[in-house]
Design brief:
Elements: H1 2-8, H2 35-38, E1 110-114, E2 122-127, E3 138-147, E4 151-160, E5 166-169, E6 178-185, E7 190-192, E8 203-209, E9 213-214, E10 222-233, E11 236-247, E12 252-253, E13 258-261, E14 267-271, E15 279-283, E16 287-291, E17 297-308, E18 314-320, E19 325-333, E20 339-341, E21 349-352, E22 358-365, E23 375-381, H3 387-408, H4 414-437, H5 442-466, H6 469-475
Parallel strand pairs: 2-8, 9-12, 10-19
Antiparallel strand pairs: 1-8, 2-5, 3-4, 3-6, 6-7, 10-11, 11-17, 13-16, 14-17, 15-16, 18-23, 19-22, 20-23, 21-22
Length: 476
């Protein structure tokens, strides 16, 4: 709905990094903060009353994202998560759907120690966006046990809030091996807070906000920004994407069958489940499906995928964008002769990471009078081709083969074959590490691995040929 998008369009500075986040379980986190660090600054709240909202609002869900490689964007910096969402630069005074005349400042969920409660007791206060208690609400407590001796295990406990909107659980364990995560699960949405641990000597109070749920993005104050990082490696093009989605309203947006298009030939899709239900799933030959509960605040989605590459001097591909895009950035590490072209974007600027790696960066911030950005076309030119180099490599490889046959006919000694096996095993180990890190593509990996294994087998065959017939008969 263009009118809504234009009214709420903030110029969000696209300086967020592809940060690494832990793969925490949906029920609770493996690296949960301590009870003290998880508690919002509301110590002045009266005993037995709901926890007061903190003085600084970071949003209902901040950076519930998935992991991505560090160092992908050298010049990006994390935004101050404690700062309020960026204001609308156009001065339209965004109207929050679902109530309120101003842009909604989401209160923070959290937990804090309560010395008035017995040790092992947890009171979960369930409230609406305005802080009003929600009586008789079903509440789920996710519990994660993390023990060196017993490993990881999870379970869920269900309880119903009373007429004051408070769900009480008793006799909970404390210690560093168990973490708790309160949740309210509806038919389509999940509202939850950061995991925490119970203190040893007191109980805890937790505050959890539950928001009205909408599927139509036109009924939510949502804008998005995107980053696309693309790199040509070996026999494939590797692309990392991140979407940062801001919800400025009082409704939680739960997209229904929202698929962001990718090239039909995309492969090797990977992502990592974060602490919330927000994320993406691959839809073969179509793209990625965005899912989850986008409550008020900001949310991060990160994933990567690949395209086949056969050594062409130019590559082109299109990537889709989520609805209500406000800004997008495209980054490509580049050699001296490489160029980056993104139609509709400003000419890319050259940047260096301080270690000699040149990158081309272009960014577009949409104006209120521009059409919605639904996809981004990426064109990389000036890529090195095989050309004469392949011919020379073929000649050298043929020469090496002839040399190998000559040397092979000289029947190397047992000591030489043992040294050769040691060298080949070391090369196989290096190849496996390169494959895991993504420095070697699947086709090159398979060819090199097969050649190394064949060479290794020949050393054992040479040992067998050198063994006297009598000894071979005894061994059989």
């Amino acid at each position: 709905m263009p009118s809504d998008r234009h009214r709420l369009f903030p110029r969000i500075a696209l300086t967020f990094a592809l940060t690494t986040s832990s793969a925490l379980a949906a029920d609770a986190g493996t690296k949960a903060p301590t009870a003290k660090s998880a508690a919002p600054s509301s110590a002045s709240a009266a005993p037995g009353s709901p926890i007061a909202p903190p003085s600084t609002s970071a949003g209902h869900a901040t950076n519930h994202g998935v992991g991505a490689p560090t160092g992908a964007v050298a010049d990006a910096t994390d935004e101050d998560e404690s700062a309020p969402p960026p204001a609308d630069p156009h001065g339209h005074g965004a109207q929050a759907h679902g109530g309120g005349s101003e842009m909604f400042q989401a209160p923070e969920d959290g937990a804090m120690d309560d010395p008035t409660l017995p040790a092992g007791t947890l009171d979960i206060h369930v409230v609406d966006p305005s802080g009003k208690p929600l009586p008789n609400t079903p509440v789920t407590l996710g519990i994660l046990y993390n023990s060196v001796a017993k490993g990881d295990s999870r379970k869920r406990v269900s309880v119903t809030a009373n007429e004051r909107g408070v769900a009480r659980l008793e006799h909970l364990e404390s210690g560093s091996s168990v973490a708790y995560r309160p949740m309210v699960l509806t038919d389509t949405a999940t509202f939850s807070m950061m995991p925490f641990r119970m203190p040893d000597r007191t109980g805890m109070r937790a505050l959890l906000h539950v928001y009205p749920v909408v599927e139509d993005i036109a009924s939510a104050l949502v804008v998005a920004q995107s980053i696309v990082y693309t790199e040509v490696k070996d026999d494939r093009i590797q692309v990392q994407q991140a979407f940062k989605i801001y919800n400025f309203g009082k409704n939680a947006w739960v997209p229904k069958d929202l698929v962001v298009a990718l090239p039909e030939t995309f492969t090797a899709f990977t992502t990592q489940q974060g602490m919330s239900d927000v994320g993406v799933d691959a839809v073969p030959k179509k793209g990625v499906r965005i899912h989850g509960t986008f409550g008020p605040g900001q949310h991060m989605i990160e994933f990567r995928w690949q395209l086949p590459y056969s050594g062409e001097p130019e590559v082109r591909f299109d990537v889709g964008m989520p609805p209500h895009m406000a800004a997008a950035r495209v980054i490509a590490p580049a050699s001296k002769d490489m160029t980056l072209d993104v139609p509709g974007f400003p000419p890319p600027q050259s940047s260096s990471d301080g270690m000699g790696q040149r990158s081309l960066i272009t960014e577009k911030q949409l104006r209120k009078d521009e059409a919605a950005l639904t996809s981004v076309a990426v064109v990389i030119r000036g890529l090195p081709t095989e050309g004469l180099g392949k011919f020379v490599a073929t000649i050298l490889a043929a020469g090496g083969l002839v040399l190998g046959l000559v040397l092979g006919s000289q029947k190397p000694g047992k000591g030489d074959r043992k040294a050769e096996r040691t060298r080949l095993l070391a090369e196989i180990e290096d190849l496996e590490r390169a494959r895991q890190s993504g420095d070697v593509g699947p086709n090159t990996y398979e060819k090199a691995r097969r050649q190394l294994l064949d060479s290794l087998a020949r050393t054992f065959a040479a040992d067998d040929a050198a063994t006297p017939t009598v000894l071979r008969r005894r061994a059989s």
